[in-house]
Automatic annotation (TrEMBL):
Official protein name in the record: WD-repeat protein
Gene3D superfamilies referenced in this protein's UniProt entry, alphabetically: P-loop containing nucleotide triphosphate hydrolases
Domain vWA-MoxR associated protein N-terminal HTH residues, every copy: 1-82
Domain NB-ARC intervals: 144-239
Amino acid sequence: MDIEEALKWTDDRLFAKTGKHLDSLQKAILEGVWQRETYEQIGDNEHCSKHHIRKEAWKLWQLLSDVFEEDVRKANIRSILENGRYSHIENLHIGNGDINVCRENPPYAKTAKKRSTNNADKVQTEKRHDLTEVPKSDRLYNRTQELNTLKQWILEDKIPIVSVIGLSGVGKTALVVELVRQIQDNFDRLLWRNCTNAPTLKSLKTNLIEFLSPPTETKSPSLIDCLRSHRCLIILDDFQELFTSGELAGTYQTDCQDYSKFIKEIATTHHHSCLLIISWEKPIELATLEGRKSLCHTLPIDGLGESAK
Ligand SMILES: Nc1ncnc2c1ncn2[C@@H]1O[C@H](COP(=O)(O)OP(=O)(O)OP(=O)(O)O)[C@@H](O)[C@H]1O
Ligand SMILES: [Mg+2]
């Protein structure tokens, strides 16, 4: 699908649901995001400020979330449009490996439910991996030790919360992308989410549960139920977006303070899943949890230095 098709496809769905078409700024935002432009670049093209574009984009993502009945953000709109057109399972190429991307959200929900009624047992045990938000990454160099440490903590020690912390650009995301490529087969459920727009805990939890819970379930389970019933790996990238600037490192914004309780719950409740956090700063509650070794481990990442050049 190219951008023209994507715009038409989106506009058709918007019109069918609301009776309205995309306006020119909404089209420009979609086109810019499709081409991986920043809000500042889109603003320059449209002769307005990046703040205005950010505000309008936020409204557009809310609108499209209603239309597509799933959480739409800058980070995932392109994959939603690409996946929405063709198939609910496609191959995503990461490094040298292929990862199955299985989307159970609308516009595929009807298909998924129908399939589950016919073949419920099979669906329950099927692996479901959603890596549509994984950024593209080139081959990883010189991180064997870090990869081995993470594999030990996640696969052998079964630590429920693992964090990868380091400055912007040091290679946290690239490291975890490679880790995921290597360990994905160990998990029934695998989900990568970027916290770019600081999702509220409520919206994140709803999104996680929709993905993790079996489609045959009639009563909606809690997130902890999901983490118990399947071996899940949940990756939250750019977690620092939930923090406030100018205060103690790792302090949550007002709207995101309930994440602290959420993390403690995942660390201290019995299950066999893992939450992997990628961030510039360590969430402050992790410092307390690290006192109990089996609950949480942090891997600080430094730049590769001269050896990698
Ligand atoms: N070990 C590595 N081998 C090869 N390329 C790397 C390595 N580490 C990082 N890179 C490349 O460096 C760039 C920045 O890495 P990455 O995006 O992973 O940083 P980051 O720490 O996640 O930054 P941010 O916190 O801003 O998201 C990417 O293009 C990535 O592919
Ligand atoms: Mg990153």
